[in-house]
Write a structure and sequence with these properties.
179 residues; mainly beta; 3-stranded antiparallel sheet; 15 strands; 11% helix; 40% strand
């Protein structure tokens, strides 16, 4: 069951479900989703590896970050692939998981975004992928609402997240053993 805005607001107030949420989303969310804002963009460099027991992500270069006192934007070129970071941090209770989708405005511009679920017990900032699959350049302001989350109630037992991405780290620093 997807939680309604009243239940989400209660979890925000009582359990810090989402930290650093903007006033608009606190006071006037649209529908059943909460919009998250763009904090940083990263470009990938080098090589990645995913093995049975080990993994290593490519290196990443931060190319731009949000500053509340200054408007900053980035032009995403056709064919460009980036890793984004949200301003907000989420803290998922044990009886909830979170699904993510891009705002539909981005679809209309040719942008494809990928985000995984946030498991019960996960806490941290989020890092969705952004890909410009369209023929046009797309300018996006840092601090803009770009990513929507849906909160889903779990019916039955769940196991809390215990992976290495807890806290919201962006990339591995070297090859590491997977848990």
């Amino acid at each position: 069951m997807i939680l309604g805005t009243d239940k989400v607001k209660k979890l925000i107030d009582e359990e810090k479900l989402i930290e650093d949420l903007c006033e608009r989303e606190l006071n006037n969310p649209e529908s059943i989703v909460i919009d998250l804002r763009l904090n940083k963009l990263f470009k990938l460099k080098g090589k990645g590896f995913l093995g049975i027991d080990e993994r290593q992500t490519p290196e990443a270069e931060e190319i731009i970050s949000y500053h509340p006192e200054e408007k900053r934007s980035y032009i995403i070129k056709p064919g460009e692939y980036l890793i984004a970071e949200t301003i907000e941090k989420i803290n998922v209770p044990k009886d909830v998981f979170v699904l993510f989708k891009p705002r539909t405005t981005l679809h209309r511009m040719g942008i494809i975004m990928r985000g995984t679920i946030a498991d019960p017990g996960f806490g941290g900032i989020l890092h969705p992928a952004i890909y410009n699959a369209g023929p046009c350049e797309v300018e996006i302001e840092l601090g803009a609402r770009f990513f929507q989350c849906f909160f889903v109630k779990i019916d039955g037992e769940s196991v809390s997240y215990r992976g290495q991405w807890q806290g919201g780290r962006v990339f591995t620093e070297e090859k590491e053993k997977q848990v």
